[in-house]
Design a protein that fits this description.
It is built from two helices and seven strands. By secondary structure, the protein is α+β, with helices and mostly antiparallel strands. It has a five-stranded mixed β-barrel with strand order 1-2-4-5-6. Helix 1 (91-107) runs antiparallel to helix 2. It is elongated, with a radius of gyration of 16 Å.
């Protein structure tokens, strides 16, 4: 069976590096599924979950706060400012950070501040949703 090399990198560290059968992630205009031999592609990605089906059939999930995707026939590279392994996601912390961001939005004075806080809110909402979805998936197994 053919595999694809997958690298998920954040500003802080390499989060994942390994071979996979299949990768799905939130592309800019919809969900993307990538198999070995995929046509080369560069795209922006939205905040959400990168799901990687490993060579042994197991799955790993990584939350990304948006970023850039590069696909080559034998490799997938995901670059994101923030990438968090599913097991490290904490819905309560994301909701707490979202509340602080909402308070900051209420006190924002100019359009630049508002735009920054709104982008942070969108990322935190996606992070909380990913944490909730992943924790529900763990409970159902």
């Amino acid at each position: 069976m053919a595999y694809i090399q997958v690298d998920v990198v954040s500003a802080e560290a390499s989060i994942f590096n390994g071979e996979a059968k299949f990768v799905t992630l939130p592309g800019e205009s919809g969900e993307l599924g990538i198999l070995p031999g995929h046509t080369p592609l560069i795209s922006r990605i939205r905040p959400g979950t990168v799901k990687i089906v490993l060579a042994d059939g197991s799955e790993t999930s990584i939350f990304v706060a948006g970023g850039i995707l590069e696909v080559q026939p034998g490799a997938v590279t995901v670059l994101s400012d923030t990438a968090i392994r599913a097991e490290d996601l904490d819905e309560a912390k994301a909701m707490e950070a979202r509340k602080r961001a909402e308070d900051a939005l209420a006190n924002a004075k100019d359009k630049a501040d508002i735009a920054v806080v709104e982008a942070e809110l969108a990322m935190l909402a996606a992070q909380a949703a990913a944490a909730r979805k992943l924790s529900q998936g763990r409970r159902s197994h």
